[in-house]
Amino acid sequence: MRARVFVTPRKGILDPQGRAVEGALTSLGISGVANLRVGRYVTLEIDAPSHAAAEATVKRICEQLLANPNIEDFRFEVDAG
Amino acid sequence: MKWGVVRFPGSLDDADAIHALREVLGQDAAMLWHKDEALGGAECIVLPGGFSYGDYLRCGAIARFSPIMQSVARFAAEGGLVIGICNGFQILCEAHLLPGALMRNRSLAFVCDVVTVRVENAATPFTRAARTGEILRLPIKHGEGCYVAPQEELRAMEERGQVLLRYVDEAGVASDAANPNGSMRSIAGVANQGFNVFGLMPHPEHAVEKALGGEDGRRIFASIIAGGARAASRVSG
Fold it and tell me: Which of B8, B164, B172, B179 could disulfide-link B52, Cβ–Cβ 3.0 to 4.6 Å?
């Protein structure tokens, strides 16, 4: 099964990278953009007996390695079948 | 005193740490390989600066899984002294041996400078050769040194005296201008609750010789060595 993981800076944590990118949009002449945050997108394939088992494993992977709970939030999607 | 300096793939300051300990401070320091598990009887472990494992994923995130780090974690749990400098600090946070995390500098720029830090708690194995309130001049060189932890955790750490070093100006005052990376509460170095694990972004190993710009880093090493001598005299006495 394929999984997609999105890791983003935790709400309330300053994201200087996001802010710099947002500033660059102003230089591009694009206005009306706010709260731009830069995160990480991870794709993986996982061999699991069921969708629920795959989700449980991906959750573990996120909690233990892909995201640092001090500074990052994560969410993920696991394809059915 | 016996020291072990861990060399990870991508470590940079391992040889400088060995030089400072052996040649300048006359210590018995051995290089430890990240794939080994034995700590060689070291009484203090140094996790040096650098870019272990290419800083992949997050700084220190992969180094945490190397075989030697399992031994270091056990050693720390038994009360052994561990000091992590720069990337070593990042590794200790990722390994959950220290609270908090280190993020990209507020400026997004790599900073290479000499900073002044204030010793906030001199009653620890890493600072006992200094005075509380003493100002040390130490070099920094990092892109991800912005210390972050949850507010309630920071409050508890301050109450317990776990903040050992804070960035200040020449007059000893913490300010936004004197904060090189945006660290919360201008934190430059923290200890764990047991005060046997210490992480700091400044480099004491680069500040042990006058010819190289200063000797204030000796305060940190002298503190650890003084504790080692005390422990040895307890054993022999």
Answer: B8
